[in-house]
Amino acid sequence: MSAQQHYRYELHSLTVLDSPMEVLVFRPEGAGPHPGLLLCQHLPMGHTGLENDPFTLTSARRLADAGFVVVAPFIFHWWPKSAPVELKRENSRDDWTVADLRAAFALLRNDASVDAARLGVVGHCWGGRVAWLAAGHLPDLQVLATFYGGNIGKGLGAGNPPPLGLTRFMEVRRVIGFYGNDDTNPSPGDVAAYAKALDEAGIAYEFHRYDGAGHAFQNFPMPERYREAASEDAWSKLLEFLRRELQGS
After folding, report:
1. Which of 25, 46, 81, 115 could pair with 41 as two cysteines, CB 3.0-4.6 Å apart?
2. Residue 118: helix, strand or coil by DSSP?
């Protein structure tokens, strides 16, 4: 998939705890109302700004082309864009991220072209963890789609519980997850723990696992990680899931 594409989106700015946060909004054709998706960005490419991140732009556009309004918040606004990715990774806090998610979700839910009864969250890599965190905190989400999110069993920032421990509070009716069997974070054992938490919470889920694929196997700007066959199969399954659960088709 080529990163040399043109994208149609709106750039918004929200203030979160006195810090301005960029948010991109992608729209499908037609007046709607459309189902809405909160898209949680990955790391490290997303840390310098969403407009510099071809993977997030492509993912958002692909979801919008499938008929969804997509809201993507830039959750690394707490630091200068020029700051090292290691600084942002090591100093991220889940309470800050939850504040970001709530602000972006309100923008999505209150959009005039969005059907607030048909909302979901999608995330890749770092965003796969953030998407799980979102499902543990945000009411009115119907579905969660998570791609190879690691560290879901770990809280970031003093006093913040791990997203996995929030599974029992999720109101989503169904979860879909995608994982490479060669990944180490999350490892196959981690994925088994995710499944156990969903079982215990009584939440329906489907997990898809790919041999010969490791972490970030959908990330086409990184050819050493990208696995086209697995990526396209996962995209097909994701869109089928979202259409069934949020579009009724």
Report:
1. 46
2. strand
User: Which residues of the chain are under the pLDDT cut of 50?
Assistant: 1-5
CB-count exposure of residue 90 (10 Å: 0-12, 13-18, 19+): exposed
pLDDT in tens, 135-179: 999 999 999 999 999 999 999 999 999 999 999 999 999 999 999
Q: Which two tokens stand for residue 195?
A: 């499944």
Taking each helix axis from N to C end, the angle separating 126-137 and 94-109, rounded to the nearest 10 degrees, works out to 70
Other beta carbons less than 10 A from residue 117's beta carbon = 12
| Angle subtended at Cα 63 by Cα 26 and Cα 83, rounded to the nearest 5 degrees | 65
For residue 1, what are the CA distances in angstroms to 8, 123, 178?
18, 19, 19
* Amino acid, single-letter form, for residue 131: A
Whole-model pTM over 0.90: yes
Lateral strand order in the sheet of 143-147: 10-16, 19-26, 69-73, 34-40, 114-124, 143-147, 174-180, 204-210
Q: Exposure string (b/e) for 172-202, b if CB count within 10 Å is 16 or more?
A: bebbbbbbbeebeebeeebbeebeebbeeee
Domains present along the chain, CATH in parentheses: 10-247 (3.40.50.1820)
The sign of the dihedral angle between the CA atoms of 191, 192, 196, 202 is positive
Query: Following DSSP, what letter does each residue of 178-193 receive, concatenated?
Result: EEETT-STT-HHHHHH
